[in-house]
Specification:
alpha+beta
């Protein structure tokens, strides 16, 4: 779900982070954040048997236009309606990348002629990364669910899942 488009600013306020988009794809929770001068994307790996679970970003090989720059046990996610409310998600392992290097406009580049990536383009890349993460898994006999009880209600409350108004159900 896209909450807002990226609004690029010439300088960064290190206290200001806002949620641009958030969702789930193939069981992976993903987030796109704005750091005012550049956007970043994050994907949560919950399967402890995934080869990139607990790997540092320098040891992760993915084909993407951004630059891998994050790998931690947690991610601080602003509320979609109020950026001053932050939720820290400690489930699984988060990996992330930024768009301030590799020929994108951002605080690492002062060249205004560099391209500004859109939230839609970032989400397309997030989907590609998730498919790449799926292809790295060697399936075992014991299947572990990637979503947990309460994820649906949490996602619905955050606006990631929009209840179906026509049929009167949430599914």
């Amino acid at each position: 779900m896209i909450f807002r488009e990226m609004e690029y600013k010439p300088e960064r306020d290190f206290k200001q982070v806002s949620l641009l988009a958030e969702g789930r794809h193939l069981g992976y929770h993903w987030v796109v954040l704005s750091f005012e001068t550049h956007p970043c994307a994050y994907v949560q790996i919950r399967n402890p048997e995934h080869p990139y679970y607990h790997k540092q970003y320098d040891d992760i090989e993915l084909d993407l236009r951004g630059t891998l720059s994050y790998s931690r046990r947690y991610l601080k996610i602003p509320d979609p309606k109020d950026s001053s409310i932050i939720v820290q998600d400690n489930e699984g392992w988060w990996i992330g990348w930024d768009y301030m290097r590799n020929y994108f406009y951002g605080d690492g580049h002062k060249n205004p002629n560099l391209p500004k990536i859109t939230v839609k383009e970032i989400i397309e890349e997030v989907m590609s990364v998730i498919v790449q993460l799926e292809t790295k898994i060697e399936w075992k006999d014991n299947f572990r669910p990637w979503t947990k009880a309460g994820d649906y209600e949490r996602d619905k409350a955050r606006g990631i899942i929009v209840p179906n108004q026509e049929k009167g159900t949430d599914k």
